[in-house]
Amino acid sequence: MNSAIRRIAISTGGGDAPGLNAVIHAVVKAAHQRQWECFGIREGFNGILRPDRYPQDGIIPLSTQMVEQISHLGGTILGTTNHGNPLHYPTTMPDGSVQECDRTPDIHRALREHQIDALICIGGDGTLTIANALHEQGLRVIGVPKTIDNDLDKTFTTFGFDTAVAFATECVDRLHSTASAHQRIMVVEVMGRYAGWIALHSGLASHAHAILLPEIPYDSTKLSDFLIAREQAGHHYSIVLAAEGATTIQGQREVQQAASAGYVERLGGIGEQLAHKLQASTGKEARAVVLGHLLRGGSPTAFDRVSALRFGAAAVRALEQDMSGVMVALAFPNVNYVPLAEVAGRMKAVPADSDTLQTARDLGICLGD
Fold first, then answer.
1. Which helix (H) or strand (E) holds 180?
2. Quick check: helix, strand or coil at residue 42?
3. Which end of the chain lies in a sparser environment, N or C, as judged by fewer CB atoms within 10 Å?
4. Which residues of 189-198 are buried (b: 16+ CB within 10 A; e: fewer)?
5. Which tens digit of pLDDT belongs to each residue from 216-237?
6. How far apart (Å, rounded) are the C-alpha atoms in residues 58 and 49?
7. Is the pTM of this model over 0.70?
């Protein structure tokens, strides 16, 4: 056993994803096997950066009893946030202006005060970029990949993705019957930010007729022509699955809120925009369905639970083996470790030569190009 470690902390940052609680469960249980104490940081790093919100301390002890029955639950018992990056923390200046400041020294100080020896950061690209910065500043850090978008590099998949795809597939399965009954075009908008993994996999699984991805700029005229041809061939309804970050051939994507201090760009709106356009161009009634945050909630699938448990236990083993600055990655049939520096700030898009993408083309699915 590594005598240098007595206490570790866990942080869950970014958007929530099914499986977060399973990682927490595994970390606490595995740490307990090594006689390490576990603590949880509330809401990403807000438990440290916003002490006014936590009068009883933003860093809380985690016992094995607290995590015994949480692996099947969605969300995270620690809470999470995708605002307030400590590397660029929005801070109000004396003159009332808002500037971004580096508040990582506050994180180091709080962990020292709680005698925390190491940190396990569970999150997506933003969280892991923070984790890498903390590692480079001398903190002992292990990253765990989490995002329903599956857009993290160096890992086969992230936990939360399988659950999101399964739920999106179930929703589109249901929409087939109502679209057929009314002979409508249904445009289904799904999350994924700038990567099309959710749209591609759920679109294939649910037999969508068209799939729009950020990686393949779409031509709305070609999409309309495809849907009209389906109608003329006797197929009187169509399902169009659109990733929220899908981009037109003119380079336009739908944005609900522009990026600002402490906030990233918020995508969304392609479903309604496309439904109006397709109704006008095809003459068929079109409706939009936005699955949105429904993809984040609910109980994780068995695959995501097992992946999350494996990630959590592997993170503890990494600390025991004196590792730092690495992310646990899924590389079938095992997990391995990759440097956070090779993951931070990088996005895994759907490759143009993807077999899954080629499968969609072989099945006659329209990709808008």
1. helix 161-182
2. coil
3. N
4. bbbbbbbbbb
5. 999 999 999 999 999 999 999 9
6. 9
7. yes
